[in-house]
């Protein structure tokens, strides 16, 4: 069944082709990034592949410039959160998980208050501290979470850069040099 001409004209007048392409590209990129990051993380036998998939989605933005900014802040926030979790665990050896969590959130929320783009460091510190397996170490959990997040953001960014290059960046045509223009 094809749409009626009046309906098609109404939709295309309000939803240009470029916007349709961008919408479909965004949906495909997000889906592809989440699935690819999960599959790669599972193949690499990472402990919590869900964080790779989530990170691929967090970094995926509508515009390439926004994705680049999200990528930079995601990496910075992850590294700060990992660092704070490790530091807190080293300084507070033997403390309860609740006490370590309270100190880590206090430190990272102060950082996030100074630069809101870094608020992800709060989540990362909490995730690191709460995903330490029985008999495991915070350092091991921190390295695992960092791997998962970095894999996810890399997959999300690569898919966006590739889609943007393929769909929206036209190669510039070299200008024709005419014989009359040469000296």
Automatic annotation (TrEMBL):
Keywords: Membrane, Transmembrane, Transmembrane helix. The chain crosses the membrane at residues 21-41, 75-108, 120-143, 149-168. One of its GO terms (cellular component) is membrane. InterPro entries: PHBA_efflux_AaeB/fusaric-R. This is Putative membrane protein YccC.
């Amino acid at each position: 069944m094809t749409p009626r001409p009046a309906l098609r004209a109404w939709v295309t007048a309000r939803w240009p082709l470029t916007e349709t392409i961008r919408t479909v590209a965004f949906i495909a990129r997000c889906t592809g990034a989440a699935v690819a990051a999960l599959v790669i993380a599972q193949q690499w036998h990472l402990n919590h592949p869900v964080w790779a998939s989530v990170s691929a989605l967090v970094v995926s933005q509508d515009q390439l410039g926004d994705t680049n900014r999200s990528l930079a802040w995601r990496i910075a926030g992850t590294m700060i959160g990992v660092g704070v979790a490790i530091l807190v665990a080293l300084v507070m050896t033997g403390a309860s998980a609740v006490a370590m969590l309270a100190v880590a959130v206090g430190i990272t929320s102060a950082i996030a208050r100074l630069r809101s783009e870094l608020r992800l460091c709060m989540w990362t510190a909490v995730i690191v501290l709460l995903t330490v397996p029985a008999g495991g170490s915070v350092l091991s959990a921190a390295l695992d979470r960092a791997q998962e997040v970095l894999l996810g953001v890399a997959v999300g960014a690569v898919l966006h850069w590739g889609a943007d290059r393929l769909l929206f960046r036209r190669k510039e045509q070299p200008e024709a040099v005419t014989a009359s223009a040469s000296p």
